[in-house]
Amino acid sequence: MKLLIIGGSGFLGGELIRQAVAADHAVVATYATRPGDAPADRWHRLDLRDAGQPEGDAGQPEELGLGLGLDRLIADLAPCTLINASSGHADWAVTADGAIRVATVAARHGCRLVHVSTDAVFSGDRPDYDETCLPDPITPYGAAKAAAETGVRLLTPDSVIARTSLIIGNGGSAHERHVHDLAAGRRTGALFTDVVRCPVHVTDLAAALLELAGSTATGIHHLAGPDALTRHELGVLIAHRDGLDPTRLPTTHHAASPRPGPLALRLNSKTTQSRLRTRLRGAREFLASAPRPTAP
């Protein structure tokens, strides 16, 4: 399989590259600011806010990531499978418009598309959310992701939209670094005791995305772990695994926060899980390993 991983320099993107290369797929990856450390065959700089015009001097070597806009890049690779693992957070130009540009070009060149979305497309007003639930976002990020989903489904009806939750790894995720910083007193803040998510391990998520990419599956799929945990409960599990003192993790309530946001987002992945060979482990399982050595 020939893969183009958009957002390859990110946490999920790097794991996708590592697993795809290990499976002997040809992998080209993009980055916004600098290439990642994962062993892609080629790296290209790509700004999803760019409507497709080439960047920089087209005479520069490709390894510098210059000279290829989105349309030209995909045209040079087609036929291929795209996995859009980019994250522009609440930047509408990247998260919504950029994702729609990817879908437009994928449709133009007949490429299969797997679009990574999020549980933030939901409000948290339901007990849980399966693949049949319609988005009802209440944050700018969730709204941008919901708009991206709409565009992707319209432009590439045979694509996969994979919603996920908090992504955890073996110490490298933003959530894990946040817990370490709080426990060490390197930053202020606290962990919410009323914000619930269904964390997934990055290796499980990447494997599931690659499995979907290589299948004939289409439509909405949910890829989250089966354990629904508060941010604080997740932090305590990370602390125990890494040999930190969980009593040093401050707590607070999101309901008292001036910033609105969903509280309980329980992403129900049972239907998708029943169709996958890849098993999505719960956080209580994948964080139950022996403590990892921690930096002084």
Q: What radius of gyration results from the CA coordinates? A: 19 Å
The helix/strand series, from N terminus to C terminus, equals EHEEHEHHEHEEHEEEHEEHEHH
Total count of domains: 1
Fraction of residues in β-strands:
15-25%
Distance between the amino and carboxyl termini: 43 Å
The total count of strands amounts to: 13
Q: What are the low-pLDDT stretches, counting only 5+ consecutive residues below 50? A: 53-67, 291-296
- Looking at CATH, the homologous superfamily is NAD(P)-binding Rossmann-like Domain
Shape: globular
Which structural class best describes the helix and strand composition? alpha/beta
The percent of residues in helical segments reads 25-40%
The biggest sheet amounts to: 7 strands, parallel
What does this structure look like?
- By secondary structure, the protein is an alpha/beta fold.
- The chain has one domain (2-169, 201-226, 268-281): 3-Layer(aba) Sandwich (Rossmann fold), CATH 3.40.50.720.
- It has ten helices and 13 strands.
- The protein has a seven-stranded parallel sheet, sandwiched between helices. Strands 7-10 form a two-stranded parallel sheet. The chain has a two-stranded parallel sheet with strand order 8-13.
- Strand 1 (2-6), helix 1 (11-22) and strand 2 form a beta-alpha-beta unit.
- Helix 1 (11-22) crosses helix 7 (202-213) and helix 4 (97-109) runs parallel beside helix 5.
- It is globular.
